[in-house]
Every structure is written in structure tokens, then in C-alpha cells.
């Protein structure tokens, strides 16, 4: 029999890339950290992620027409931790975020960010799955040396040459 604890333990052993999702549906910006971001299609360019119904950011993300998905490198660990911390104003430090010309809040230092239009949502247990069509991508990985940030077994990790397996 599968219990919630067994399920959580299984996924703790499965690493995930770290992303921060931002949105503003007209009542102020929100952000949350997620390891559930995944590509769905390249033509059209689609991605998906899930958000917990328990997150205070979920109602705004679900109400927003567009979101920004930040794919983080190790240099953005403070942003990942900020998005993962509840009960704080994630936008208090105006030096680390701004708004895109289209109005969405974003963290400019992210190694890659994708602005996208929400095209579908589905309740799935205690979470919601959000489908997004990519409208704009800013890829700065060639401009910065930040290696990908990964979350595994409740700990932050970095991928690099030493983690490579052939």
C-alpha cells in the first residue's frame, strides 16, 4: 500500500531542477520555488509545472494570464530559498527583481527565464498542474558561469564537471 509518506520519500530520492515561478494577476507579485517544471512540446513551445493548493502564491498564479518561469543556477540559490520561504515578502528587496515591459515580475539574474501564457490548468489531488506556452525566452547561461541548481533529498546541489557520468 502506498502512503503519502512513502510517496514523498520516493520523490525525495529523485532530483529536480530548481525554478522560481512569478506572476501578478493585478493584486501584487507572487513567487514560489518549484522542482516540477518540465518541457512538454517544442512545436509549439510548451511547458508545465505544478503548484500546491496550500501555497499562498497559488491563487495568483492560477488567476494570472502570464507567468515567468526562472530556471535557476547555483548563483541564484538565494532566490530559490526566497521563493521557498513562506511568510516573507519575496519582493521587499527591489534590487533583485523588476518588471518586464509586459508587466510580469521577474528576477533578471536568473540564468534562464521564460515568459509564457497560461493555456490550461487542471486540479490534480492537492495540487494544480499549469500548462504554459512560451512567448519569450531570455537565456543568459552563456553570459554567466552559474551551473544548474538541483534539489535532491531536501538539499540544494549543483551540477558540474565532477557530477558528470559517462
List keywords for this structure.
single chain; 166 residues; 3-stranded antiparallel beta sheet; 12 strands
Set down the secondary structure blueprint.
Elements (H helix, E strand, L loop, with lengths): L3 H9 L3 E2 L1 E5 L6 E5 L3 E5 L2 E8 L5 H6 L2 E6 L5 H8 L13 E2 L5 E2 L5 E13 L2 E13 L9 E4 L2 E4 L8
Antiparallel strand pairs: 1-11, 2-3, 2-6, 4-5, 5-10, 6-9, 7-8, 9-10, 11-12
Radius of gyration from the CA trace? Answer: 16 Å
First-to-last CA distance: 36 Å
Give the structural class. mainly beta
Average of per-residue pLDDT values: 92
Report on this model:
The protein is mainly beta and 166 residues long. It is 14% helix and 42% strand. It has helices at residues 4-12, 58-63, 77-84, and strands at 16-17, 19-23, 30-34, 38-42, 45-52, 66-71, 98-99, 105-106, 112-124, 127-139, 149-152, 155-158. A 7-stranded antiparallel β-sheet has the order 3-2-6-9-10-5-4. The protein has a 3-stranded antiparallel β-sheet with strand order 1-11-12, with no helix packed on it. Strands 7-8 form a two-stranded antiparallel ribbon. β11 and β12 (155-158) form a beta hairpin.
Amino acid at each position: 500500500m502506498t502512503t503519502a509518506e512513502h510517496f514523498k520519500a520516493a520523490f525525495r530520492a529523485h532530483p529536480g531542477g530548481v525554478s522560481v515561478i512569478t506572476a501578478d494577476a493585478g493584486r501584487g507579485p507572487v513567487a514560489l520555488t518549484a522542482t516540477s517544471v518540465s518541457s512538454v512540446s517544442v512545436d509549439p513551445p510548451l511547458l508545465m509545472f505544478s503548484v500546491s493548493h496550500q501555497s499562498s502564491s497559488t491563487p495568483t498564479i492560477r488567476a494570472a494570464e502570464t507567468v515567468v518561469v526562472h530556471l535557476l543556477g547555483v548563483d541564484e540559490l538565494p532566490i530559490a530559498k526566497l521563493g521557498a520561504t513562506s511568510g516573507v515578502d519575496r519582493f521587499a528587496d527591489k534590487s533583485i527583481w523588476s518588471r518586464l515591459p509586459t508587466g510580469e515580475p521577474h528576477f533578471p539574474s536568473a540564468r534562464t527565464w521564460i515568459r509564457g501564457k497560461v493555456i490550461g490548468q487542471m486540479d490534480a489531488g492537492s495540487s494544480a498542474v499549469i500548462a504554459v506556452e512560451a512567448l519569450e525566452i531570455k537565456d543568459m547561461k552563456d553570459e554567466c558561469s552559474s551551473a544548474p541548481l538541483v534539489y535532491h533529498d531536501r538539499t540544494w546541489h549543483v551540477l558540474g564537471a565532477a557530477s558528470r557520468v559517462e
